[in-house]
Amino acid sequence: MTSVKEFRVDAEPTASDLGRGRFVFTDQYSVFDWGEMPDHVPNKGASLCTMGAHNFERLSEHDVPTHYAGVYPAGASAGDDPISLEACEEPPTEMAIELTQVPDLPYLGDDEYDYDAYHDAAGENYLIPLEIVFRNTVPAGSSLRSRGTPAEYGLDLASWPDEAVDLPEPVVEFSTKYEEQDRYLSRPEADRIAGVAALDDLEDLALAVNEVLNERAAERGFVHEDGKIECLYHDGTIKVADVVGTFDENRFSYDGQEVSKEVVRQYYKRTDPEWVDAVSEAKSQAREEGVADWRGLCDRSPESLPADVLEAVADLYAAGTNAYTGSAWFDAPDINDAVARARDL
């Protein structure tokens, strides 16, 4: 179980073969790595499933290999085959996927993990324990600003400005996936953690995904700011895994307003700063003490969102999905109205 979608296995993967399974998207959400938050956002799961399926099918049209195998319409029976998104009459909440092996990643203490053990168990059919991050812009507060100067990213600037900056070329970075606190990696460290999967191939795949998402966003009036992919390695082939190009995995904006989970993140920063600070302090304490579970050190819990905020966020996900896909999947306000309401939160 992840914080926003359930994971079900229909056929287990083996050392040599991919298995079959499905994601069941829920209306849960998570910010600041907290896990399940106190509230659920109506129709969020259907929005993410619909938008993810739309993007996977676009990637297939561009010959980008993925683990996507279709979606299940509402009311599908256990033995039914998945279908394309286009064949659905209602927004789906279940996605069919190929499965790979995900071994345990032993924690050694002092922020050290045993990746050798992970790969010894994984062989050549495994989920690569990295997130491959791609960035088209550098917003204010981006962690990328702390890892380099503007000149290092091709910008003719003496220092980082207060406002967001468009990058001349997309930047690709690598971070951990299964560690309790994600961290960005040097290329040599990322190469070691990737196992037999070539880092250059992962970068090329991320750039190909980014290009497809950028093109679609521009067609529909969005700006695709940044995002990530996860990948599996099977018998010499790297495939995009997890879910791609949704308002949870990626940051999109419309008319200068964020249309993503960032809206909720920023709302909590403004209205519940004590909890946000407590999360940061707990993560720091966990690093200092060399323990994996920082949540056990956090002395506060997040407050619930007001009903009007939940409604505005739900409308933003639904209206954004309608606008991005070009289909009226949800009974939702026009994207311009939903964006204007989110701007006032």
Question: Strands, helices and their partners?
Answer:
Elements: E1 5-11, E2 19-25, H1 44-61, E3 68-72, E4 94-99, E5 107-109, E6 112-113, H2 115-122, E7 125-127, E8 130-138, E9 165-176, H3 187-194, H4 199-219, E10 222-234, E11 237-241, E12 251-254, E13 257-258, H5 262-271, H6 273-289, H7 307-325, H8 335-343
Antiparallel strand pairs: 1-2, 2-4, 3-4, 5-6, 7-10, 8-9, 8-10, 10-11, 10-12, 12-13
Descriptive account of the structure:
The structure is a single chain. By secondary structure, this protein is of the alpha+beta class. Helix content is 32%, strand content 23%. It contains 8 helices and 13 strands.
Salient structural properties:
4-stranded antiparallel beta sheet, 345 residues, alpha+beta, 13 strands, D-amino Acid Aminotransferase, Chain A, domain 1, 32% helix
CATH superfamily: ATP-grasp fold, B domain
Radius of gyration: 20 Å
**Biggest pleated-sheet summary:** 7 strands, antiparallel
Structural class: alpha+beta
**Distinct helical segment count:** 8
How many domains comprise the coordinates? 1
* Helix fraction bin: 25-40%
Shape: globular
Low-pLDDT segments:
none
Short description:
The chain is α+β, with helices and mostly antiparallel strands and 345 residues long. It is 32% helix and 23% strand. The chain has one domain: ATP-grasp fold, B domain (D-amino Acid Aminotransferase, Chain A, domain 1, 2-Layer Sandwich), CATH 3.30.470.20.
